[in-house]
Amino acid sequence: GRYLPAAGQHGQGEYGTQQTKVGSLHGTTGALRMGDRVSKVVFRVSNRPGRLSVVATPIGNLDDITRRAVEVLGSVDLVAAEDTRHTGRLLDALHISTRLLSMHEHNERERVDQIVGLLLEGRRIALVSDAGTPLISDPGFPLVRRCREVGIAVVPIPGVSALTAALSVSGLPTDRFCFEGFVPRKPAARLERLRGLADVQA
Predict the structure, then answer these.
(1) What's the CA gap between 56 and 70, in Å, rounded?
(2) Whether the predicted pLDDT of 44 surpasses 70
(3) Nearest CA to 134 among 147, 121, 123, 122?
(4) DSSP character for 169?
(5) Long-range CB contact pairs, 62-65, < 8 A, 24+
(6) Alpha carbons 51 and 147: distance in angstroms, whole number
(7) What is d(CA 50, CA 127) in angstroms, rounded to the nearest whole number?
(8) pTM of the prediction?
């Protein structure tokens, strides 16, 4: 981490911090520099990293939520939500008081470091979108990728998905399909995308 001015017991110095993993230990390493000497201390250490649960939530009917999802949302230390107001209403209906943290398309890259830091301290965090399964045309990809890069467990809590729900009643062949997510809003760009998909075999 970057060294910053600090006042210590023995005078002025500088300190910095960074997330570390030593063997099976995960935590935050603090380094204090006094002149040419650097001392290190590890604090907020956990013998195991936390866990990120990717939780599917209902897309219109509260009864579609799974018992496992309710258990996870009620037992984690924090819920990272696309819209805290929307998810707050869901948690209220489930009588769950877990703390919420916003993570949406406009701030997710800034939130990644914060959430990964908490996970490395051993916290358990749930990731939810407004409805359905997170990451499927919803925020969350940068966070999940970072977690996998640093060795944090990422666990799916399966449930509702608008994609599979629509496909199951479409009458289309379901042994093979192509999912393109949201098409562009501007007509010209949308038409170009659709023309590019015209010859896709699915």
Answers:
(1) 10
(2) no
(3) 147
(4) T
(5) 62/90, 62/93, 64/159, 64/160, 65/94, 65/159, 65/160
(6) 9
(7) 13
(8) 0.72
- The answer to whether the beta carbons of residues 43 and 20 sit under 8 Å apart is no
- Report the C-alpha gap between 178 and 45 in whole angstroms: 44
The first and second tokens of residue 108, run together, are 């997710």
Which residues neighbour 10 within 8 Å (Cβ) at sequence distance 6 or greater? 34
Return phi, psi of residue 109, to 5°: -70, -30
- The pLDDT tens digits of the residues spanning 99-112 come to 999 999 889 888 99
Q: Given this model, what pLDDT does residue 105 score?
A: 85
Distance in angstroms (rounded) separating the CA atoms of residues 69 and 130: 14
* Burial status of residue 61 (CB atoms within 10 A of its CB: 0-12, 13-18, 19 or more): exposed
Tell me what pLDDT residue 108 has.
87
Residue, of 71 and 8, whose pLDDT is higher: 71
